């Protein structure tokens, strides 16, 4: 074993959760909160895009610092970071599209290339992209860089599909849900688990965004009219409940290791 990795290994084991049903539900919910939460703060609260982005980036930096300093996987820190990454990832894409007028075709392509570059460098340096091997500081930094870009890419691709290509919110939920189901089936029958995980992870972003828009947007725009506030509160409540559940389960695992 490389001695340079020993200090970090003794402090940062299990920094990423196991991929379970709860993992995917929380992930999808967090993407929905990212979509509705960013819109609510920027538009309805009146903070504006720039102020909202500054606040969310500061909160993300603080959460990421907590995540990196943690000695092991701590559910509430990890998922708080994911929710904030979701908001910031959404804002990055919105800033390019709405603020700078970059087309969704261009932003989707740029983010796809950026993610490919991260994966390429990550694999060349670490020889694995598995989330079960996030056991060094460098791998964890690669992991979070990839997560941020997947959110930005998922936002751009989702908006491209539902808006530019005209799928709409309802059909968007069905299409992205079906693609995730196909990816899960491919993994089940023997496809590369690392590849299928990252494909599914990217697809959950446009699924969550489509779901968030379907629930929150007015009926005149093809939504169900629940609004950003109601949708965000309900989904946040579900996230908190699930994170509390996995925290209890993680605590039992940690105590069993001590015993």
Automatic annotation (TrEMBL):
Transmembrane segments annotated in the record for this chain: 41-66, 73-92, 104-122, 142-161, 167-188, 195-212, 224-249
Keywords, sorted A to Z: Membrane, Transmembrane, Transmembrane helix
InterPro entries noted in UniProt: DUF347
UniProt protein name: Membrane protein
Species of provenance: Caballeronia humi
Taxonomy of the source species: Bacteria, Pseudomonadati, Pseudomonadota, Betaproteobacteria, Burkholderiales
